[in-house]
Amino acid sequence: MAKKVKVRFAPSPTGDLHVGNIRTALFDWAYARHTGGTFLFRIEDTDTTRVTDEYIQAAIDTLKWLGLNWDEGPEVGGENGPYLQSQRLDIYAEWAQKFLDQKDAYHCYCTPAELEATREAQRAANVAPGYDGKCRDLSADQVAVYKSEGREAVIRMRMPDGSTTFVDEIRGEVSFEHKFVPDFVLVRADGSPLYTLAVAVDDILMKVTHVLRGEDLLSSTPRQIRVYQAMGVKPEDFPVFAHLPFVMGQDNAKLSKRNGEVSIAWYREQGYLPEAICNYLALLGWSPGDDRENITMAELCELFTVEKVHSSPARFDMKKLEAINGDKIRALTLDDFLKWSLPFLTKTGIIAGTDSEIALVKSALPIIQERIVKLDEVPQMLKFLFVKEFAVEVDSVSKIIDDVSKDVLKRSLKELEPLSTWNHDSIEAALRACLIEEMGLKPRIAFGAVRIATTGSTISPPLFESMELLGKQASLARIAAALTL
RNA sequence: GGCCCCGUCGUCUAGCGGCCUAGGACUCUGGCUUCUCAAGCCAGCUACGAGGGUUCGAAUCCCUUCGGGGCUACCA
């Protein structure tokens, strides 16, 4: 019987989680859910100079916001914790000592300057750069000399001769000659562990069965496998590796701050829905195999297999994300749309959040739902319903001060004033009768003037519905005011 | 430089030897609809990096080449 799948997402929060990280997290999560396995979330904070508590918290919040819930990890705990590597230092130290005792690893006293000089020479000589194994077999005397010089040692893993071959679930069999995989550092001179040590130890100790991660880690896999071997793990117990293709920016370089907005926090502020982000990201490097593109989280879990993941990198396309976000917004129920919209309305000060305001927003949302792509457009769309001191946009004023417009507005006022029933049907019937039929105007001319007068802009939600929501009193007052411009 | 990965429309992709005069989606262009903006509908543009093989037949298999990317840290 196959082992129960356990997939881990293990970011190193040296900044806000970005699009690439999230795509990896999404695939990890989807694979775990698809297989009925466990999704483990681990924080790789061994580089204390770059990881901050704020970034760690932000990573946790982002995953939660996206709905990528984890079964083991920060906040939820689990039997293989702790899940912050900074809290597991003693574990790594123990293993490092064991490797030392087994002679799989050794102390290296070379200074950074010496290592740099070696690399320079190798480069100049056109040979593979990397540690030359100088400290592999130091005698006690030599060690004593180094120590007397005040040198501090790092712990290096000894790479034996030969090669490492493993099967990558996405790329097939991959092989590395050890002469191109130099002895690597496990523990810094200050005693702190490096990624190379911590990642391998944790994946084994936390019983991870599948490692789905970015392809930048592909060439570090032989090192990871070397640590498994030193730990005494049998090959059949190694995790399965699958290296996901990159998400690239417009300029065909790995996505970074330079080539586009990559922080998920930014997308959140712009009004993208988590489901849209996940749907779009799912399509970057993966497809269900048919023409389906609108995929829910539940469907993703059902359909996701590593087999369908690409081996080639994908370019991030904001336009397509926007299109999907628009689709997702249109598919929202009214209550959900309201829930997502409210924060944008209050944040911009359009509404304070009173019950009556919320009720008006709720009745107005249906008429804007199909005309926005992002939630941050909601305030602009509904502003006219809430502004205390209404004014026509400066650019639009000139369009309603001509004689025709004045006539339209005067006539509208006269026709609307006696209306006893104020709804979009009655408003439309009244305005059509007088402006289109009697005055013989083109609808876009006639209604355009009324639109500017009542909503303040040439662009608005449907006019009659807008006027209904605005109310008779305010509508008429605005038309009257427009006549004085 | 060395090692490794990758290569279908502008972009994301379908395709796993004949169903391909290469399908879908986004973008773009034109049109329809229309009270603005959208949405919706219709149409159009545009791709198998190149060169060799293998085969009756190749986007699909092999080789070479070109191009892109990653790694080459006491980062991850």
Describe this structure in words.
The protein is built from 20 helices and 11 strands. The chain is mainly α. It folds into 4 domains: 144 residues, 3-Layer(aba) Sandwich (Rossmann fold), CATH 3.40.50; 157 residues, 3-Layer(aba) Sandwich (Rossmann fold), CATH 3.40.50; 52 residues, Glutamate-tRNA synthetase, class I, anticodon-binding domain 1 (Helicase, Ruva Protein, domain 3); 90 residues, Arc Repressor Mutant, subunit A, CATH 1.10.10.350. A 3-stranded antiparallel β-sheet has the order 3-4-7. A two-stranded parallel ribbon has the order 1-2. The protein has a two-stranded antiparallel ribbon with strand order 5-6. The mean pLDDT is 93. It binds one RNA strand of 76 nucleotides through helix 4, strand 6, strand 7, helix 6 and strand 11.
List strands and helices in order, with pairings:
Layout: E1 6-9, H1 19-35, E2 38-41, H2 53-66, H3 89-101, E3 105-108, H4 112-124, H5 140-148, E4 154-157, E5 163-168, E6 172-177, E7 184-187, H6 195-205, E8 210-214, H7 221-230, E9 240-244, E10 247-248, H8 264-270, H9 274-282, H10 297-303, E11 314-315, H11 318-330, H12 334-347, H13 355-368, H14 378-386, H15 394-397, H16 403-416, H17 424-438, H18 443-455, H19 463-470, H20 472-483
Helix pairs in contact: 1-10, 6-7, 9-11, 12-13, 13-14, 16-17, 16-18, 16-20, 17-19, 18-19, 18-20
The protein binds one RNA strand of 76 nucleotides through α4, β6, β7, α6 and β11.
Please state roughly what percent of the residues sit in beta strands, choosing from under 5%, 5-15%, 15-25%, 25-35%, 35-45% or over 45%.
5-15%
Q: What's the CATH superfamily of the largest domain, by name?
A: HUPs
Major β-sheet strand ordering: 3-4-7
C-alpha Rg, in Å? 32 Å
Keywords: Aminoacyl-tRNA synthetase, ATP-binding, Cytoplasm, Ligase, Nucleotide-binding, Protein biosynthesis
Main location: mitochondrion
GO biological process, one term: glutamyl-tRNA aminoacylation
GO molecular function: ATP binding; glutamate-tRNA ligase activity; tRNA binding; zinc ion binding
